[in-house]
Amino acid sequence: MFQLGKTIVSEEIIENDFVCNLSACKGGCCVDGEAGAPVEDSETEIMVDIYSKVKPFLRPEGISVIEKEGAFVKGEDGEWETPLVNGSECAYVIFDEKKVAKCGIEEAYNQGVINWKKPVSCHLYPIRVREYTELTAVNYHKWHICDPACALGDELKVPIYKFVKEALIRKFGEAWYKELEEVAEDHLK
User: Fold this and answer.
1) If both were cysteines, with which of 65, 101, 162, 167 could 124 make a disulfide (CB 3.0 to 4.6 Å apart)?
2) Is the peptide bond before 126 cis (omega within 30 degrees of 0)?
3) Pfam families in the record, alphabetically (predicted)?
């Protein structure tokens, strides 16, 4: 671990490679699991505000859950998260013609309907961020579902922190990311 400002960062995001391989995993991270995607406090109002614009992109079962439970819910850990359909897939999941899970929020963003991409936790994945009183932990979340992404990342030689560059800048800013790049260069020497 190393410290960048008020963050504690795992070396694993520098040392491990990762590039999503949707043709292999079919977006399993949005479908499997026991909890929804983390939603930050600052994102809850956004989730409510965009719902009417995102709704046309969603599946009926996702709409049903969101309209019953809300645009976000309190998880078992006491944190906000996206609601789930049948206790498994994110309510915002849609499927393309190849049965690959995609994000309905991101689809609305890609089509210019909204100007917010998706919860930052989804954008950052496989990095997970945990806020503490004084510091924020930035860690690599290993999950067997992502083995194809690890293999593709290794093949293409793309470290995790470079794969999620846009999301890290979104979360922590350009200056923080530049400092991370410098630390990574020194670490890998």
Assistant:
1) 167
2) yes
3) DUF3109
